[in-house]
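Protein modeling request. Please complete all fields; requests missing the sequence field cannot be processed.
Requester role: graduate student
Desired output: 3D structure, token encoding
Chains: 1
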Amino acid sequence: LRFLRAGKGDVGEGKRRYKATLDWRKANQIDNILREPSPHFATIKKYYPHFCHGRGYHGEPCYYEQPPKTKLKMMQNEGASIDKILRHYAMATEFQ
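Delivered output (96 residues):
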């Protein structure tokens, strides 16, 4: 239903969006992301303030971030590259 809404009711556009999402998930191995080791988890949590705060009125996850408090250089100094940070974000989002 979310893809149909995103396509403004156009079934063809909804299908295209759904397929694009499935292709992206496959290309980025999202279905296995929760099984991957996350060696930089503690570092990212320490320097990038973010958390899940339950669900909203319509069942959507409420995810909060504090970008101004992010210490990117500190994370990078401890080995967490931008790619690792983005992977962590995908993992946290998938966990919801």
